[in-house]
Amino acid sequence: MLAADSGWTILLTGDNLTRLLGGLWTSVSVAGLALIFGIPLGVVLGALRIMHNPVLRAVLRLYLEFFRIIPTLVILFLFYYILPREMGVQVDGETIAVVAFGLWVAAEISDVVRGALISVPEHQVDAGKALGMNGLQLLWYVRLPQSVNLMVPATINLAARVIMTTSLLLLISVIDVVTVGQQIMEANRMAHPDSAFWVYGFVFLLYFIVCWPLAMIARALEKRAKERNNG
Asked: What is the model's pLDDT at position 231?
């Protein structure tokens, strides 16, 4: 019982709780900025992928496969350690993370958008052509409105994945919630050997509180979209 009490007191000692919540805010803000940057770019790339241009489609496909095949950790290291040195610029870790995650989000969203756009029935597209719509008008007035219901659940799921992947920020010197948790654990390791259980357990709880509602919302939207498609 004493060990349990001492474990909880680690979280409540000094400003540890405030630091953990501040680290969570860093994780969520990096993920949020990456989504704000990546989603619009992904929508544009996804729209370009349905164009009848084999060279453009091949380039965008390679872009997608690069971010799918290369581990996110390797991408972060590439952006944080190699590119700034080769370009002769100094960029902070949070900016690097936003750019790296944003490009990853754009790649994933481009595939979501492409799949949703090509799922629109061809007779709807043909009807738009019969009305004299050009390619951009078909995209804006026909394809996008009918495919949004398919895009939103996948986008919310991706947002949860990005938030969870921010746990890698520890490795590029960004003070996120995992980094703060490690600092607290190491500072109390001698006095409280069970500190890892309580600190990382609380970090897990914070991630769960943020990501679980997103998963539930995505599931509800997917169910609604299926019901709507089935009539």
From this structure: 54
Token reading at 217: 């919302």
CA 67 to chain centre: 13
- pLDDT tens sequence across 34-62: 999 999 999 999 989 888 888 999 999 99
Instruction: Give the CA distances from residue 149 to residues 49, 117, 121, 228, in Å, rounded to whole numbers and listed in that order.
Output: 19, 11, 14, 9
Amino acid letter, residue 188: N
Give the span between the Cα atoms of 137 and 143, in whole angstroms. 9
119 by DSSP, 3-state: which? coil
Residue type, 180: V
Residue 82: both structure tokens together: 């190699």
Q: Please give the single-letter amino acid code of residue 202.
A: F
Provide DSSP, 4-59.
HHHHHHHHHSTTHHHHHHHHHHHHHHHHHHHHHHHHHHHHHHHHHTTSS-HHHHHH
Q: What is the pTM of this model?
A: 0.86
Residues near 66 by beta carbon (within 8 Å), at least 6 away in sequence: 107
Find out whether 27 and 163 touch, Cβ atoms under 8 Å: yes
Q: Are 169 and 93 in contact (CB under 8 A)?
A: yes
Number of helices (H) and strands (E), helices first, in the chain?
Answer: 11, 0
Question: Which is higher by pLDDT, 78 or 130?
Answer: 78
Q: Which pLDDT does position 116 carry in this prediction?
A: 87
CA–CA dist 95, 38 (Å, integer): 14
Question: Which residue in 61, 50, 46, 231 sits closest to 151, CA to CA?
Answer: 46
Q: Which of 5-14, 98-107, 136-145 has the highest mean pLDDT?
A: 98-107
